[in-house]
Specification:
The chain is an alpha/beta fold. It has a domain at about 5-70 and about 90-165 and about 250-325: FAD/NAD(P)-binding domain. The protein contains 11 helices and 17 strands. The chain has helices at about 15-25, 55-60, 95-110, 155-160, 225-235, 280-300, 310-315, 320-335, 340-350, 350-360, 370-395; strands at about 5-10, 30-35, 50, 70-80, 80-95, 115, 120-125, 130-135, 140-145, 170-180, 185, 195-205, 210-215, 245-250, 260, 265, 405-410. The longest helix is centred in the last third of the chain and has 27 residues, at about 370-395. It is globular.
Length: about 425
């Protein structure tokens, strides 16, 4: 007879490893983590440990053990406009190929079984357990299954009946580049070319830069078009994007009303939804993992596996309040029509808004607790919108000053295929 596990976590990225760590803190020892790939495995990502990642690591008894670049400033750009804001605390930029492997090592050291090369094909939920069928036909059973398996999550597909929706689109490439400083660059200039999001240039250890862009799904953009936008945008930084090697992947934005659980099933991390404004997912995953781990441990203790309150618990947690607010802000800023210019002028030309944005990224403040400051900024914008609109048009019309923040370094193109999914 197939063994019945207490919990099977599908996916061993930051969401899955963090959930396993939380369950271990609760004394749940019969936890099996399944991962499709072996470690170290590459994962396309900007690599910034933003938000409240420091607190999440501490709460989970996990440590940052890999090399990182502490970035204490963010440089926001749009056309000829540029402003640098100081972070409330540095954002540590890591390489996911190293960070994810380190988290797996830490949970394995606690006795958690992480089984690699285990791709889940289908799942069936009955009254007493969930049955997972792996590629190759092996079947596993558990009292609780937690989907931490990313945007293509088999658990998410089961919950949503594989409903179709437009995802966020992200592309990134890591390449040799000499950056003048360790500031994280957020460049909204490509919104003039139809992007609904931003381009980033982040410093990485070893004389490298992590570059990429995020596109919000208010309009459809294909991979070749987004890569062209990325290539054109990077040219202003003296960075030549290789013809091959850029990684592209879809992600789902967090929606407070989305189905994130069912009897015996939970989702966490990208499977539950990322930050719709910034595209950030690491800190989000590690914060959600605490909620999921608490819910699963409580179910095992009480025998109540309905998880009817899980969506509300996610929403009421700090991470859920932040995600809900960012979702609202993203819909304003990244709208498909010309209305985005009104909101972009607010973001760029109200110093307090940029300070709040930097605090949100660094995790030194909870933006959801700053609603009064946001409303005051909106009131100020009513009176200042005319002048700010003129400033925005001037920034759009004037050519941006050539950036001296980086210089290209020659290297062979990455072997990864352009547009490959995570």
């Amino acid at each position: 007879m197939t063994r019945l596990h207490d919990v099977i976590v599908v996916g061993a990225g930051p969401a899955g490893a963090s959930t396993a760590a939380r369950l271990h803190q609760h004394g749940v020892r019969d936890v099996l983590v399944l991962e499709r790939y072996d470690f170290p495995r590459d994962k396309p990502c900007g690599g910034g440990l933003t938000g409240h990642c420091d607190e999440a690591l501490a709460a989970l008894d996990l440590r940052l053990t890999v090399p990182f670049v502490p970035s204490a400033a963010a440089r926001v750009r749009f056309g000829s406009f540029e402003r640098t804001v100081t972070m409330g605390r540095p954002v540590n930029v890591i390489r996911r190929i190293e960070f994810d492997a380190s988290l797996v090592e830490q949970v394995r050291a606690r006795g958690v079984e992480v089984r690699v090369g285990a791709a889940v094909d289908t799942l069936v939920v009955d009254r007493d357990a969930v049955t997972l069928r792996l590629d190759g036909g092996l079947e596993l059973r558990a009292r609780v299954v937690i989907g931490a398996d990313g945007a293509a999550s088999v658990v998410r597909k089961h919950l949503t009946a594989n409903a179709k929706a437009l995802p966020h689109r992200l592309f990134m490439h890591e390449l040799p580049a000499t950056l003048a400083d360790t500031a994280m660059v957020y460049d909204f200039t490509p919104m003039q070319a139809g992007l609904r999001g931003y381009l980033w240039v982040f410093p990485v250890t070893g004389g490298r830069a992590n570059v990429g862009l995020m596109h919000y799904p208010s309009s459809r953009k294909g991979g070749p078009e987004l890569l062209r936008v990325l290539r054109d945008g990077l040219a202003g930084y003296g960075i030549a994007l290789p013809a091959k090697g850029s990684r592209g992947w879809p992600v789902w934005g967090y929606a407070p009303g989305a189905r994130v659980s069912a009897p015996r099933l939970l989702t966490v991390g990208d499977a539950a939804g990322i930050d719709g404004l910034t595209g950030e997912g690491i800190a989000v995953a590690m914060e959600q993992a605490q909620v999921a781990g608490d819910a699963a441990a409580r179910a095992l203790s009480t025998g109540g596996f309905e998880f009817g309150g899980y969506r509300r618990a996610l929403r009421r947690a700090t991470v859920g309040r932040e995600l809900a607010l960012d979702r609202w802000l993203a819909r304003l800023l990244y709208q498909s029509g010309p209305g985005w210019q009104r909101w972009m002028s607010l973001v760029l030309f109200d110093p307090d808004v940029l300070e709040m944005y930097a605090a949100r990224v660094s995790g030194s403040e909870v933006l959801a607790d700053q609603k009064l400051r946001l409303w005051r900024a909106l009131v100020r914008h009513v009176g200042a919108s005319g002048g700010r609109s003129r400033k925005l048009r001037a920034a759009m019309d004037q050519p941006a000053a050539s950036s001296a923040s980086s210089s290209p370094a020659s290297s062979p193109a990455s072997p990864d295929a352009a547009g490959s999914s995570s």
